[in-house]
Write a structure and sequence with these properties.
165 residues; alpha+beta; 5-stranded antiparallel beta sheet; 4 helices; elongated
């Protein structure tokens, strides 16, 4: 397999996508934050002192997706055409599942944008709730599916839940 982010001398470079055709591309990622009972109840009832945690986290996730190229060195700056962040609460396990779906018509995919969106949204939940619980655990971040480009549709077979929403 040829390494695409290095030149013949081993120097890092951003891949030149100028000759690729624009196609519709989408990606959805997910991740989870495990919290204690107090945090779970406060998020669900919207009683965290800093505000509506999930609304703020959704906004942060969208902002994070839009700034991916500023965080990941070889990512292209992309004009996203859509980004949606949503959450599912799991009361038995005291988990909050985050999903981020990103769209573009362009020359490269938006997998990193979806993954970044999830990560930033989950970090925002941690930040807003840390006064109640410093032992929250963020994890299980992965790509659920992506469409477009030369590889077409790719679905992570381990992705259950509502990753196609």
């Amino acid at each position: 397999m040829e390494l695409t982010h290095f030149d013949q001398s081993g120097n890092a470079l951003m891949v030149d996508v100028s000759k690729k055709a624009d196609t519709e591309r989408e990606a959805t990622a997910t991740g989870t934050i495990k919290v204690n009972e107090a945090v779970y109840q406060a998020v669900e009832s919207r009683t965290i002192k800093k505000g509506d945690v999930l609304s703020v986290a959704a906004t942060a996730g969208i902002m994070g997706a839009k700034k991916t190229a500023q965080l990941i060195p070889m990512c292209h700056i992309l004009p996203l055409t859509g980004c949606r962040v949503w959450f599912e609460m799991e009361s038995q396990q005291k988990k909050i599942h985050c999903f981020c779906a990103v769209k573009i018509t362009g020359k490269t995919g938006v997998e990193m944008e979806a993954l970044t969106g999830v990560s930033v949204a989950l970090l925002t939940i941690y930040d807003m709730c840390k006064s109640l619980d410093h032992s929250m655990e963020i994890g299980e971040i992965y790509l659920c599916r992506k469409t477009g480009g030369s590889s077409g549709e790719v679905v992570n077979q381990n992705a259950g839940r509502s990753h196609l929403s």
